[in-house]
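Whether sequence alone determines local backbone shape is best considered at the level of individual chains. The sequence in question and its structure tokens are set out directly beneath this paragraph.

***
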Amino acid sequence: MYKVELENRGEMFFIAKSKDYLFNIDLKGKGMNPPDVFLASLAGCIGVYFRKYLESAKLEISGFKITAEGEFTQEAPYRFSKIKISIDIKETHLEEKRKSAIMEFIKNCPLHNTLKYPPEINLEIF
């Protein structure tokens, strides 16, 4: 089971903790805002699956950059209406057949699947 704890430190500043790691969430410039964290998490998951594919196929790509962009709806309920993920493999050339195989493999990312098949979300105040 995965677990993240979020502690409010006043106003809109939060400390997020997962295992032994911390990061800031803030709406006033001292950390990422929640939509940025969401996009970073999705891009990170896709990056892990991209790297897994490269390693299993024994493909050498020294580095790559993933960009995640999202557009919010203009009316309630506010949410991302579009998310675009781009993987820049720099100078490396991949055949279209290989790119298609990678795209199919990346779709195994659990966060991608969570968006495709939304989970039950239970909120409680105690």
